[in-house]
């Protein structure tokens, strides 16, 4: 009850906002008295109505965009999953009970929510698995998933956001179903890990020094290990696909972990860390040095395929993408898709999901 993303919470705040505003309007004259104390009292009531209005709008926007999953997330405390998390190196395959606890999407895939503790990162958080019918049938029949007809793609959100945004506001299951319908002989397993694993702190998918949060390790080695073990699949290389901050994460993770990923799609992304202005200068300088994209490229042993998608109307992403494209990238085979209009929002990104998934299938 009163959870941040519940419809009932939004309804209560709407009621309180309307009720308090109407009361103030109808009783304003009766509340009036001469004197400073009365003025302060009435001003406080007006401020209360405005606070309720802003809170209601914020809760509504959060429900639509899946920025924060709980009040503790919003307040920067995060959720402590450690007591219920299973280790990322588990060898326990999904049994019938786990499959029954999954949710079927409107497009027919099975969605399983797992709470996982990363063996290497120490991060405990959420991972969603989107299983196509072919994978579900293989598990039910105790048969290995056919990786010659199945690819694994890791989907990364922006900041702030929750992994469930891929299932709700971004509706990735619809795009996955359309992709499979167009090519029934090929399926995609979707992996959606939590990107924002440190409350309201934007980690940019990086490992932080001095015993800081190891987000990069969580999103690469730990997530890969868990899914490979959980689904009984070999350590095949995956594709990456991210929006906004997730676009940066996808590009960065792909070149830092060539052994884990074969290609990346960056939608409305950028190509250098964009830490908050409140970040300590020493931390920012260290992160900029550790995650300098051109330096990371020179350390590559092979080549990486990338699809970069940016909208002309998305000022920051478009500028950063053009800046990136103006430089030489001998170790990256990239394609660039430019969207002529539209800003930084899901309405611009979703129509390009089909193109992105087809590109990932072919690489």
Break the fold down into its secondary structure elements and pairings.
Layout: H1 7-31, H2 36-65, H3 71-74, E1 86-87, H4 96-101, E2 103-104, E3 110-117, E4 124-131, H5 133-140, E5 150-156, H6 172-182, E6 187-193, H7 215-230, E7 238-243, H8 245-256, E8 261-267, H9 281-290, H10 293-298, E9 304-311, H11 315-325, E10 332-339, H12 346-349, H13 353-362
Parallel strand pairs: 1-3, 5-6, 5-7, 7-8, 8-9, 9-10
Antiparallel strand pairs: 2-3, 3-4, 4-6
Helix pairs in contact: 1-2, 6-13
Description:
The chain has 363 residues and is an alpha/beta fold. It folds into two domains: 7-65; 78-362, Alpha/Beta hydrolase fold, catalytic domain (Rossmann fold, 3-Layer(aba) Sandwich), CATH 3.40.50. The chain is built from 13 helices and ten strands. Strands 1, 2, 3, 4, 5, 6, 7, 8, 9 and 10 form a ten-stranded mixed β-sheet that branches. Helix 6 links the parallel strand 5 and strand 6 (187-193). Helix 6 packs across helix 13 (353-362). The longest helix is centred in the N-terminal third of the chain and has 30 residues, at 36-65. The radius of gyration is 23 Å and the shape is globular.
Q: What ranges have pLDDT less than 50 throughout 5 or more consecutive residues?
A: none
* Average pLDDT over all residues: 89
- What percentage of the residues does DSSP assign to strands (E)? 15-25%
Largest sheet: 10 strands, mixed
Overall shape: it is: globular
CATH top level assignment of the largest domain = Alpha Beta
Task: Label the structural class.
Answer: alpha/beta
What is the count of DSSP helices, taking H or I runs of 4+ residues? 13
**What is the radius of gyration computed over CA atoms, rounded to a whole number of angstroms?**
23 Å
Instruction: Spell out the helices and strands N to C.
Output: HHHEHEEEHEHEHEHEHHEHEHH
Instruction: Summarize the amount of helix as a percent range.
Output: 40-55%
């Amino acid at each position: 009850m009163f959870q941040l993303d519940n419809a009932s919470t939004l309804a209560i705040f709407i009621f309180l906002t309307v009720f308090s505003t109407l009361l103030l309007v109808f009783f304003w004259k009766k509340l009036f008295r001469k004197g400073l104390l009365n003025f302060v009292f009435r001003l406080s009531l007006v401020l209360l109505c405005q606070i309720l209005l802003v809170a209601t709008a914020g809760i509504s926007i959060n429900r639509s965009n899946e920025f924060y999953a709980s009040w503790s997330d919003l307040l920067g405390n995060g959720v402590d999953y450690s007591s219920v998390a299973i280790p990322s190196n588990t060898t326990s395959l999904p049994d019938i009970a786990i499959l029954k606890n999954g949710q079927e999407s409107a497009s027919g895939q099975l969605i399983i929510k797992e709470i996982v503790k990363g063996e290497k990162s120490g991060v405990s958080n959420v991972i969603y698995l989107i299983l196509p019918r072919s994978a579900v049938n293989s598990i039910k029949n105790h048969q290995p998933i056919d990786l010659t007809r199945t690819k694994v793609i890791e989907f990364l959100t922006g900041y702030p956001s929750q992994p469930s945004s891929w299932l709700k506001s971004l509706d990735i299951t619809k795009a996955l179903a359309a992709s499979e319908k167009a090519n029934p002989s090929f399926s995609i397993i979707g992996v959606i890990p939590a990107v924002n694993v440190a409350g309201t702190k934007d980690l940019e998918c990086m490992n932080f020094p001095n015993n800081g949060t190891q987000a990069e390790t969580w999103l690469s080695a730990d997530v890969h290990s868990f899914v490979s073990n959980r689904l009984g699949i070999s350590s095949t290389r995956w594709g990456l696909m991210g929006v906004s901050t997730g676009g940066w994460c996808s590009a960065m993770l792909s070149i830092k972990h060539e052994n884990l990923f074969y290609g990346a799609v960056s939608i409305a992304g950028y190509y250098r860390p964009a830490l908050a202005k409140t970040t300590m200068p020493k931390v920012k300088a260290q992160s900029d040095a550790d995650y300098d994209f051109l330096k990371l490229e020179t350390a590559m042993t092979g080549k990486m395929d990338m699809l970069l998608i940016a909208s002309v109307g998305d000022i920051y992403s478009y500028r950063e993408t053009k800046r990136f494209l103006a430089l030489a990238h001998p170790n990256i085979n990239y394609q660039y898709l430019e969207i002529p209009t539209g800003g930084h929002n899901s309405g611009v990104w979703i129509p390009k999901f089909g193109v992105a998934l087809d590109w990932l299938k072919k690489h």
